[in-house]
Amino acid sequence: MGIFDFLNSKPSVEKLTKKLVNFVYDSVQTEKGVRVEDALCVMSTILAERCIKIAGEFSIYKHNFEPGSAIFSEKINGILVGSVAVENWNELPEDAIFSKIKRKIDSHFSKKPFPALTKIFEGFAKNIGESEWGNISLNVPNENKPSILPLQAGYETRKYVDDTINLESDEKTLRIVINAICRVLIDTKMALDSSIALTLVFEIINGMSKTATMTDEKMKELQAEIEK
Q1: Mind listing the pLDDT tens digit for each residue in 1-20?
Q2: Cα–Cα distance between 204 and 42 in angstroms, integer?
Q3: Per DSSP, what are the bridge partners of residue 47?
Q4: Mean pLDDT score of the chain, rounded to an integer?
Q5: Maximum distance among all alpha carbons in the chain?
Q6: 111 has pLDDT over 90
Q7: How far apart are CA 6 and CA 215, in angstroms?
Q8: Between 20 and 30 A from 113 (CA), which of 4, 74, 189, 225?
Q9: Residues 6 or more apart whose Cβ sits within 8 Å of residue 107
Q10: How many Cβ atoms are within 10 Å of 42's Cβ, its own excluded?
Q11: How far is residue 70 from each of residues 16, 113, 128, 136, 190, measured CA to CA in Å?
Q12: Phi, psi values for residue 34, rounded to 5°
């Protein structure tokens, strides 16, 4: 195989982004269509799991934490918003995940809908243990809360992302997932109030990147309990 054949055989970032977006839409499709809140929940959780992989503090596949439990991490904070807390979105480091998302969607959203950065982080810390297992507290109206548990979404999409999207490196996969979540936000802008959509996305990314993932081992234990 020549060099040009090799390069042509590699799926482009754009193709993989489209593939991931379509996969997420298909995964939440019902007879009534695609519920935006559920699509955003699934995509945000996928991104959160990829942030955990990049941080490398524990494996998303196998660990000794109780799935669904909170795990605070300064390293995750650095990945999401940088090492220094700021109030102004425009003061975030360029390489921070939140900053990358904002820059990609800035031309489609005004400044007003973006949630206060401090509320995202303080709200998660304050409400630990207040929501049902596998979920996190969200500062959105009840009618706009996802019908899918984020913990479940992460577990059920993990294999697809690993097998179909993560073809070269965790860093490139993270880039693709960021592109995909921006695509969903832009695609669904007219279907959901922007302030609700953005709050939901950034709160789930923050919360689930600080939450112990569901593992195969724990899933087997839960299934065994159900079957008793």
Answers
A1: 555 555 556 789 999 999 99
A2: 9
A3: none
A4: 93
A5: 57
A6: no
A7: 35
A8: 74
A9: none
A10: 26
A11: 31, 27, 7, 10, 33
A12: -100, 120
